[in-house]
Amino acid sequence: MTRRLPYSLLLPALLTVLGVLVPLSYLVLRALGAEPGELREIVFRSRNLMLAGNTLLLGASVLVTTTLVALPLAFLAARTDLRPRGLLTLLGVLPLAIPGYVGAYAFIAAGGAGGAIDTLTGLRLPGPSGFWGALLVLTLFTFPYLFLNLHAALRTQDPALEDAARLLGRTRWQTFWQVTVPHLRPAWLSGGLLIGLHTLGDFSVVSLMRYPTFSAAIYQQYTAAYDRVYSAWLALLLLLLTGAALWLEARFMRGVFLSRVSPATARKPSTVRLGRLRPLAWGFVAALAFVSLVLPLGTVLYWLGLENNPFAWSSLLDALKSALGAAALAALTTTALALPLALIGSRFSGRWPRIIERAAYLGYATPPLAFALALIFFVLRAVPPLYQTLPLLIIAYTLHFVAEAIGPIRSGLVRATPRLEEAARVLGVTRAGALRRVTLPLLGPGLLVSAAFVFLSVLKELPLTLLLAPIGFETPARNVWSYTEEAQYASAAPYALALAAVGAVLTLLILRRERE
Q1: What is d(CA 482, CA 491) in angstroms, rounded to the nearest whole number?
Q2: What is the C-alpha separation between 86 and 92, in angstroms, rounded?
Q3: Alpha-carbon gap, residue 513 to 516, rounded angstroms
Q4: Is the peptide bond before 126 cis (omega within 30 degrees of 0)?
Q5: How far apart are CA 178 and CA 39, in angstroms?
Q6: How far is CA 282 from the centre of its chain?
Q7: Could you count the other beta carbons within 10 Å of the beta carbon of residue 127?
Q8: Residue 1 has what pLDDT?
Q9: Contact 461/453 with Cβ under 8 angstroms?
């Protein structure tokens, strides 16, 4: 491992870190810029305590409910004789293709008087709203983050400890809770952190469900009340919560060591036969498929059949062109910046490489609304002409999602051993030439997966687009949001279906590439 960082890697990495830290620093300065009396009144508002309580309650509840959904499904797909396993895996992954606000739109448009269920069956079910509505939607469309981690852990877990527990007299149920579940802690913490950060920073679902949290309050204060100081403080309070989530995850992971001591190859876990529990398992799978895929997509198709406005379809094409173009550009810039950061994190040791790589994750850990607000404050002060332009939007996408692109590239670097680069250097190839001719070809699959991840994330992104997009820049995400807010469900349907379809295709491609 080389300790000296080359400038070709250091400069783009530092630009990324500065791009994340400078706006956030200016957000702090803006929040502290009020008079002392105003600051006391803002910080100690009783509303802040209510928003914090609501945000934490929702975040903790979503972690519990997603675990109750993802853990049984992951166990059924990885360890039991329930077939086909591919179908179970798809059920655990495909809801990720449906953005939360599309899911919220579908459930709102399905329930209540005049909803899809009322019209088709005459059964008038209450429309979801408030805490329970937000909990339902966020659970159904974020549990795949946890499923993917738990499924991988269950498939690769060494069954030796489980066998030892059974030999010592533990029942199968006791073995599961005392041996299997504790060894899933790293996977649960990894997926749970993503779900926790997503829930704490979610703005669209809680707004549509009329459940007040920090993110919803930030948007209202900035766009409706124009109170920039209070919105800056709300953003900082939300950042404290996300920082606490990151600290807790690091604290719980400290001292975790689950690798094998024996050099022998681990056996594959044995298959659990469900027997009489098979109908119950299929009932769980069918119910989950219905509420997470059939009901949302069926509702979208129902309202799509009521949309007879030709202008909506032409507008959809224009919105798709804008969104796909921005997503493609952001995928390129983000992957290009993630490459030097991944190289620094995997090829160099020491404190500074570690700090540089971790600082890049701050943009992803920052809730999108807080990050957008920080960029707005900084740009209006430093470069006002950049405000509400496409370059600023691409910069925001890049800085926010660069951490998402690092992971697949780092996985590819595991295969691209440094010895190949050293061999090229011995043969007279320069460092840049070795990177271009040896490492990059081996990183091709990882780069493609990173770009696909970012492309899908940008396509679904709503808060950054709402606050930073140029005037007249329409995307399917913005139109689903605006039409749903006005209860124009038929008008929102084409955009919702387009997002779900593109998301499903990209999700399947990413899943296939990951398997390869």
Answers
A1: 10
A2: 10
A3: 5
A4: no
A5: 50
A6: 28
A7: 17
A8: 45
A9: no
DSSP letter for each residue of 131-150: HHHHHHHHHHHHHHHHHHHH
Lookup result for tokens 């008038």: 124
Pairwise CA distance, residues 235 & 247, whole Å:
18
Q: Yes or no: say if 338 and 354 are a contact pair by the CB < 8 Å rule.
A: no
Q: Of the candidates 217, 248, 203, which has an alpha carbon nearest to the alpha carbon of residue 63?
A: 248
Torsion angle of C-alpha atoms 388, 209, 67, 198, degrees rounded to 10: 10
80 DSSP β-pair partners: 272
Residues 208 and 322: their CA atoms lie apart, in Å, by 24
Residue 272, helix vs strand vs coil: strand
Contact 95, 143 (CB under 8 A): yes
Phi/psi of residue 272, each to 5°?
Answer: -90, 125
> Dihedral, CA atoms, 279, 285, 286, 288, nearest 10 degrees?
140
Contact between residue 421 and residue 306 where contact means Cβ atoms under 8 Å apart: no
CB 109 within 8 A of CB 115: yes
CB atoms within 10 A of CB 391: 10
Q: 295-342, pLDDT tens digit by residue?
A: 999 999 999 888 666 676 778 888 999 999 999 999 999 998 888 888
Task: Supply 88's token pair.
Answer: 């179970």
Q: Which of 185, 208, 148, 243 is nearest to 453 (CA)?
A: 148
* Amino acid at position 347, single letter: R
Peptide bond into 95 cis (omega under 30): no
Burial pattern 8-42, b for ≥16 Cβ within 10 A else e, equals ebbebbeebbebbeebbebbeebbeebeeeeeeeb
| Tokens coding 244 | 């606490």
CA pair distance 111, 127, nearest whole angstrom: 4
Residue pair 253/191 in contact (Cβ under 8 Å)? The answer is: no
State both tokens at 385: 């002409």
* Per-residue DSSP letter, 183: G
Q: Which residue ranges in the chain fall short of pLDDT 70?
A: 1-4, 158, 160-163, 165, 225, 253-268, 307-310, 312, 411-442, 513-516
pTM to 2 decimal places: 0.84
Q: Which residues contact 123 (CB under 8 A, 6 or more apart)?
A: 117
Residue pair 239/367 in contact (Cβ under 8 Å)? The answer is yes
* Angle at CA of residue 143, ends 140 and 148, nearest 5°: 145
| Residues 128 and 52: beta-carbon distance below 8 Å | no
Query: Which segments within 16-78 are labelled E, that is strand?
Result: none
**Residue 389 CB neighbours (<10 A):** 17
Q: Give Cα separations from 105 to 190, 468, 473, 481 (angstroms).
A: 29, 23, 22, 8
Looking at residue 80, what DSSP letter applies? Answer: B
Give the containing element (helix H, strand E) for 161: helix 160-167
Cα separation, 223 vs 401, whole angstroms:
24
